[in-house]
Amino acid sequence: MRLSEYLLVVRKHFLLFSAIFLMSIASAFTITSLTTPTYESTTRLFVSTSGNESAADLLTGNSFTQQRVKSYADIVTSPAVLDAVVAELNLQDIADRLSDNISATVPLNTIILEITVTDPSPYRAANIANSVASSLEAVVTNLETVDPTLASPVKLSVIQPGQAAKSPAAPRPLLNLALGALIGLALGFGASLLRESLDLRIRSVEDVPDKDGVTNVLGGIVFDPTAESNPLIVHTSPKSTRAEAFRQLRTNIQFIEAAEGRKSIVMTSSVPSEGKSSTIANLAIAMADTGKKVLLVDCDFRKPKMHKYFSIEGAVGLTNLLIGQVKPSDVIQRWGRKNLDLLPAGQVPPNPSELLGSEAMKKFLIKAEKDYDVVLIDTAPLLPVTDAAILSKITGGVAIVVAVGKTTKPQLSAALGHVESVGGRVLGFIMNKIPTKGVDAYRYRYSYKYGSYGSYGNYGNYGTYNQAYGEDAVETTKLEAPVAAKPPRKSTKKA
Fold it and tell me: Could you give the CA distance from residue 318 to residue 332 in angstroms, rounded to a whole number?
């Protein structure tokens, strides 16, 4: 991922990121406020040896002292040293933890011993540091004196007594808040990435499965909150940017027709409510505008919508045709004064899948491809039922509508598996309900702009999204009002 993509992830999950960041800073502030301030006081001692007259003696004595001073640092917190300090300063209340507040260090290549004491009181810390130095001096003198008649060869001299500190050594508010902010940034960013990785919804072209390294996206349609009440946007608002997106989709599908030589195309989706029916309805109008003779067939026996969208008679239709009750001319209805014919679904049969895979359906499609330039078929979603998978095998292929921000990757993968399992062909994907604002909208444009351009569908998408995001739409002639549909003739045959 690029840096800009990481920033988009943070922006997308900004509330989560901000909550963790603020909680981290609040925790650092709370800990700092509840921590008792402690002060440090340091006493420095110089360790020397006596009886050094020559240069050789001085060198030997210096080496001896450097070795000894490390041992002195180890006995600073021993009872031999601290018992005298406790008795002198009356520290019986903290005697058991006094050693934890005292540390002794020896700077590298020196014979200086530094004793540091930490305590809530700056004055007591200084008193303890000085008392420890005095007690250590007495203990060392006693330990290094072999002959009571002779002076100790080692001498500890205080070169810097402990002083009462003016400011606490801990806590450090600015440092703690800075650390809290850094931890908050790291945790917030990590949580945003984790949530993004767990979000399986398809939000960009990059999330769509590819084949041979190429993602064949046929087009993209932006989200329209009025789509339910105004489904035929190409007819009602032909100059809108969304209508132009359908015309661009029409162009891309025409490339497929030219390459494959098949006239029938099935349009479906993975799950319901992804906008497949309104998409194919507008695509049919856009294709009819070019002068092509188009047949739109409603094969969604589970939830037919075409007769509602186009306001035509839907009581008799494809089901009646397939069981031999009527002829094609009895149920195919002309819409408008263009070359668009509609075949509604008709009555809901008890065996939709078997009916769509029947020989009667195959024969009807063969004849329809001879009579029309394009045959568009709307069918049920792939995951709930097998209707679309069956039709994908006996037609030119299937175009799958993907609702951006709703369809998940597992759902789309399972849908593709259904088509492949029957030997059907996936022509490509149509990205629907693309957000027009917000992080997902920018992310979609970004991923598309820098994505691969390995198919004519992708090139077509680039034009689609340019139009959909603010360029002037191409003017088209508005369709005339639909003429009254010819009522179906009653059949005398028995079912």
Answer: 9
Strand residues in 283-391 grouped as ranges (E): 294-298, 333-334, 340-343, 374-378
Q: Compute the Cα dihedral for 405, 220, 399, 301 and give only its sign.
A: positive
**477: phi > 0 → left, psi -120 to 50 → alpha, else beta; which?**
beta
Chain mean position to CA 366: 46
- Residues 6 or more apart whose CB falls under 8 angstroms from that of 320 comprise 326, 331, 346, 347, 488, 491
Question: Residues 112-132: pLDDT tens digits?
Answer: 999 999 999 999 999 999 999
Q: Which contiguous run of DSSP H or E holds residue 179?
A: helix 173-198
Q: Whole-angstrom Cα distance, residue 478 to residue 238?
A: 6
Name the strand (E) or helix (H) holding 296: strand 294-298
Q: 38 has which bridge partners?
A: 170
Task: Tell whether omega for the bond before 487 is within 30 degrees of 0, i.e. cis.
Answer: no
Torsion of CA 98, 101, 102, 106, to 10 degrees: 160
User: Cα–Cα distance between 401 and 225 in angstroms, integer?
Assistant: 18
* Band (229; pLDDT cuts 50, 70, 90): confident
The answer on pLDDT for 238 being more than 60 is yes
State phi, psi for 69 to the nearest 5 degrees: -65, -25
Enumerate domains of the chain plus CATH numbers: 3-35+171-198 (no CATH), 39-160 (3.30.70.1130), 205-468 (3.40.50.300)
Instruction: Name the one residue in this structure whose structure tokens are 């007259």.
Output: 53
Task: In whole angstroms, give the CA distance from residue 319 to residue 476.
Answer: 35
More confident of the two residues 409 and 11: 409
Q: Is the pLDDT of residue 475 over 50?
A: no
Query: Rg of the chain over CA atoms, in angstroms?
Result: 42
CB 114 within 8 A of CB 107: yes
Six-digit token pair at 17?
């990121």
CA distance 126 to 85: 12
Interhelix angle 409-421/387-394, rounded to 10 degrees, is: 50
Predicted confidence at residue 370, as pLDDT, reads 92
Distance CA(324)–CA(491), nearest Å, equals 9
Q: What is the largest CA-CA distance in the chain?
A: 140
Distance of CA 239 to the CA centre of its chain: 35
